[in-house]
Design a protein that fits this description.
The protein is α/β, with parallel strands linked by helices and 412 residues long. It is built from twelve helices and 16 strands. It is globular and about 65 Å long.
Length: 412
């Protein structure tokens, strides 16, 4: 059957069922999404740590499935961490160690165990990520390359046919995939639109063939207004939900300290890029509020050589950017004095070391949770779970804050 006929068949089948069964629309909890990265293992953060907070999540997005520059097919981002690394009993989700003879090890096997212990949990794989712009552009360039790329994603992550392992060894782990193209350019606009259609069409085929009507297609999208124009408004309803960038709005590439993830601003001449602006942008493109999820950082951007400034907090002062974001758990334990502007953000300044960090602490997360509830948005997506404190103060604050608000109904 041509893929173009599948959507019509699916609609017809659902209409037939609805003649006999007409359930009320089922409200679902707000999405509570956490990103888990393959490289977390190198920082001694394991899926057993996620198991401890899984009741505060609805989704895990595993990062990343990469695009091979030669074949333009999907490949594992880190084969050793993904499927080869043996977990000890102390690190395993269920306390059972991997054995050398088992086919599937690594994070994928732990994700399977995690889902068994938490049946409500949905697991998606993110495709692409930073540094994959050229590969995405090439993979999306023609109808043939798009079809081959998406087919490879379905084969590896849904059929579970991981190269080098028995057929179907990783089946049943993933519940869909997330497009993380950073970033499409103007020349990619038509191909991005066609790629979204191809992804949804092949998922529809899989859903019908294998009775999996619950597969999700999601996307991470930019806060930048110009880059957002390259995402066709008409295609956005093909996604189960969309995560809008709510971090790196300001950062160490700028020569002045600022809030990385300001919720809103009372000083647009100084902090001109905010989460509220990003949310408003994507709502204006036709994304329903309930399907728009705000990205939040569990890391902190920083600057060195920062003078205290007139208020003694280092905010909006010249500084030298610290190149990589530091985990929140490290920054919160470091020396310094916290300051905040309610409704905007918070920061930590070490006057002796002349170090400034933009910090989304529990207070900021509470503000953001309240904002999500008041706007009727679909939830949060935390980059990345590894950055939280051992007692998961950030995730707990966000999750509890959403629990106080109304529930949303999924559009898919």
């Amino acid at each position: 059957m041509p893929i173009s006929d599948v959507a019509g068949l699916k609609a017809a089948l659902l209409a037939t069922v609805d003649q006999y069964i007409q359930p009320e629309p089922q409200p679902v909890p707000s999405r509570k999404v956490g990103y888990f990265t393959s490289w977390s293992v190198y920082d001694s953060y394991f899926l057993r740590d996620v198991d401890k907070v899984a009741d505060r999540l609805t989704h895990i997005v595993y990062c990343f499935g990469a695009i091979d520059a030669t074949t333009l097919r999907v490949k594992l981002g880190d084969p050793w961490a993904d499927v080869e690394m043996g977990y000890s009993s102390a690190r395993s989700v269920d306390g059972v160690a991997d054995v050398p003879s088992q086919a599937l090890k690594g994070h994928f096997n732990q994700l399977r165990k995690l889902k068994a212990r938490h049946p409500h949990l949905r697991v998606l794989v993110a495709l692409g990520g930073p540094g994959q712009q050229a590969q995405f552009a090439q993979a999306a360039a023609t109808a043939q390359s798009r079809a081959a790329f998406v087919s490879s994603v379905v084969d590896v992550f849904l059929h579970g046919n991981v190269p080098g392992l028995p057929v179907g060894a990783a089946a049943g782990i993933f519940d869909g995939f997330d497009l993380d193209w950073e970033f499409p350019l103007a020349a990619d606009t038509a191909n991005l639109t066609a790629l979204i259609t191809e992804c949804r069409s092949q998922l529809d085929v899989f859903e019908i063939e294998f009775c999996r009507p619950d597969l999700e297609l999601t996307a991470w999208v930019p806060a930048n207004k110009q880059w957002a124009t390259y995402w066709s408004d008409a295609e956005l309803d093909k996604f189960s939900f969309i995560v809008v960038q709510g971090y790196d709005l300001h950062g160490p590439w700028e020569g002045t300290t600022n809030y990385t993830s300001a919720l809103d601003t009372d000083y647009p001449d100084k902090t001109w890029f905010t989460c509220h602006q990003a949310v408003t942008l994507w709502l204006s493109k036709g994304v329903s509020a309930r399907d728009l999820v705000l990205g939040v950082p569990f890391y902190c951007n920083g600057w060195a050589n920062v003078a205290p400034g007139p208020n003694g907090d280092g905010l909006w002062q010249p500084g030298t950017g610290i190149s990589s974001g530091s985990m929140y758990r490290a920054v919160v334990a470091a020396r310094g004095v916290m300051s905040r502007k309610v409704g905007m953000g918070a920061s930590k300044y070490n006057a002796a070391g002349r170090i400034f960090y933009s910090v989304d602490d529990a207070g900021v997360m509470a503000d953001k949770a309240a904002y999500l509830v008041n706007k009727g948005l679909g939830g949060f997506a935390a980059w990345e779970l590894r950055g939280d404190t051992p007692d998961a103060v950030l995730l707990s604050t966000l999750s509890a804050g959403l629990g106080k608000g109304p529930r949303c109904t999924s559009s898919r």
